[in-house]
Write a structure and sequence with these properties.
The chain is α/β, with parallel strands linked by helices and about 325 residues long. It is built from eleven helices and eight strands. The structure holds adenosine monophosphate and manganese (II) ion (3 copies).
């Protein structure tokens, strides 16, 4: 056979249909004229990592919530992006998709999440980093399974693996299994007693460094955002140290608006952006429907901030 299968499928697609597909994909990714008056949510998850909805269900929900711009930022994977894009084109949905990822990194014994926004999901350096992070996830999952066996819980690794399917395996999958098997009363207890930092079945992960995550995001043409700076349980002194090093490593923005953040916290984070000349991002970190947070809810970019999307003009 002379033609690869992909080419044949293009040849067999009517030209009008192809033109519509290319045009709608361009509109879908045209992020040059975003404005704070739109409903923008730049942090969300699907079941390709630890989210509860499939990429198509997430898009349906975002459209129902009248979100104008949505970034899908799964943990260490870009698997959801093509599925979501094809679905938006197929449905001709009025939503713009930002290609994103949330990369786990290691910093001074803490796990810091770096969100990459507006990335080229096919960039080779990015794909190489994803492979390494996936290997680190797999190794940690295996070790966590062994530690949980020692706690007397059998088959947790296999069940977590099954739950994760071919997406990223995360501690959230382990927490769900521990809950379903009746070993803990809530997901939070699974972290507090077993898989959280310093607990019985905790395994130190082998994540990349902040600097490398930022560099790879830039190689892939994207913007590097420090995810949820308020959630790392750092003292003021350590948070400042983290922000300084993020800036020195060429980081672009801080995620300064999350639904649960109090006005005082938002103000504090905005001041870090102004002080260190960083852009600002906002997002729900949506994982599944809950009464605490939802897509696009309670997200407003402060007037004084330089929005991260200003970098995409
Ligand atoms: P991982 O990236 O595999 O370490 O998984 C961490 C994920 O578990 C986070 O992205 C959260 O979605 C979820 N999670 C829920 N509760 C906690 C908690 N107490 N500590 C850390 N992660 C949590
Ligand atoms: Mn998560
Ligand atoms: Mn995170
Ligand atoms: Mn997240």
């Amino acid at each position: 056979m002379l033609f690869p299968v992909k080419l044949i499928s293009i040849v067999e697609t009517p030209i009008e249909e192809l033109i519509i597909k290319v045009m709608s994909t361009e509109v879908l990714h045209d992020l040059s004229n975003l404005s704070s008056s739109q409903r923008i949510d730049l942090h969300s998850h699907t079941h390709c990592s630890d989210g509860g909805l499939s990429p198509t269900e997430l898009i349906d929900r975002a459209v129902n919530f009248q979100i104008d711009v949505l970034a899908i930022t799964d943990h260490d994977t870009v698997m959801a992006l093509d599925i979501a894009k094809d679905y938006i084109v197929e449905k001709n949905s009025p939503i713009k998709l930002v290609n994103g990822i949330e990369i786990s990194t290691a910093w001074q014994g803490f796990e810091i999440h770096i969100v990459g926004l507006n990335i080229d999901k096919n960039n080779q350096q990015l794909l190489n980093l994803i492979t390494r992070q996936q290997n680190a996830r797999e190794e940690r999952a295996t070790s966590m399974g062994l530690k949980l066996e020692k706690c007397g819980f059998s088959g947790v690794y296999q069940a977590a693996k099954e739950l994760a399917g071919n997406g990223s395996i995360t501690r959230a999958h382990f927490a769900k299994v521990l809950l379903h098997q009746g070993h803990v009363a809530t997901l939070q207890k699974a972290f507090d007693k077993y898989i959280g930092k310093g607990q019985k079945a905790f395994v130190k992960p082998n994540w990349c460094e902040i600097k490398e995550a930022i560099q790879v995001i830039h190689e892939a043409g994207g913007s590097a955002v420090m995810a949820h700076p308020v959630r790392y349980d750092l003292s003021g002194k350590w948070l400042r140290r983290l922000i300084v090093q993020f800036k020195e490593a060429d980081g672009d923005a801080l995620e300064i608006v999350l639904p649960q953040m109090a006005p005082k916290q938002r103000e504090l984070m905005l001041n870090y952006c102004l002080e260190y000349d960083l852009h600002a991002s906002l997002g729900s970190d949506f994982h599944y429907p809950s009464k605490w947070s939802d897509l696009g809810r309670n997200l407003h970019m402060p007037d004084k901030a330089k929005p991260v999307w200003a970098l995409w003009k």
